[in-house]
UniProtKB/TrEMBL annotation:
Signal peptide: none annotated. Residues 9-34 have a biased composition (Basic and acidic residues). Residues 2-143 form the CT398-like coiled coil hairpin domain. Residues 1-45 are annotated as: Disordered. This is Putative zinc ribbon domain protein.
Length: 196
């Protein structure tokens, strides 16, 4: 926007400067015609007219320099506008591409959520209600993770290694006993990789 504004300001300035040059040129032409016509006979008036024509020629030259300088600035502004417009187009195409990929990822995630939700409903139906209630409560308290794998004598929820006494208790507990981590209070899931 700033570059476009600068370009339009330069265009207005160029138009005004060109109009000023035209006015000076027309006046110089009129004075030259008066001089050439012989209508002015007084030597003093002739001298003044010649001085004015010379002054107008200098003024015209100065104004033409202004026009050239404004044209250069305008050309520079036009190049900047073109460059920035191209960059905006490039960025917009990247945004459009990223938006399309994001939307596709959202669709894929939504599909996965629907599938996992159905699977969870099936599995949740086979779990005792009190255990499911405990799991949901822990999940809410622990940022979405209510149970963690016991792996190599460490809770994968809080990444803490369990004490030897805790491991002994877990080792001696029945396979269907609900075991919880002493550090983070999550339900511990025992596997063959638990290290007990």
């Amino acid at each position: 926007m700033a570059a476009q504004t600068e370009e339009s300001d330069c265009a207005r300035e160029q138009t005004k400067a060109e109009q000023d040059v035209d006015q000076v040129r027309q006046r110089a032409t009129r004075d030259q015609q008066r001089l050439d016509s012989g209508a002015v006979t007084s030597p003093k008036d002739l001298e003044n007219l010649q001085r004015e024509i010379a002054s107008l020629a200098k003024r015209q030259g100065d104004l033409e320099d202004v026009v050239l300088e404004v044209m250069e600035r305008r050309e520079s502004a036009q190049q900047r506008v073109a460059e920035l417009t191209e960059r905006v187009g490039s960025v917009q195409s990247k945004i459009d591409d990223a938006t399309a990929r994001r939307d596709a990822a959202f669709e894929e995630i939504d599909g996965e959520i629907a599938t996992v939700t159905k699977e969870r409903e099936v599995i949740a139906g086979s779990i005792p209600a009190d255990l499911l209630k405990l799991y949901d409560k822990l999940r809410e308290q622990q940022g979405g993770i209510g149970a963690a794998k016991l792996y190599a004598r460490s809770c994968q929820g809080c990444r803490q290694e369990l004490a030897i006494t805790e491991l002994s208790e877990i080792r001696s507990a029945a396979p269907d006993t609900v075991i919880r981590c002493e550090n983070c209070r999550r339900i511990l899931v025992r596997t063959s990789e638990s290290g007990i």
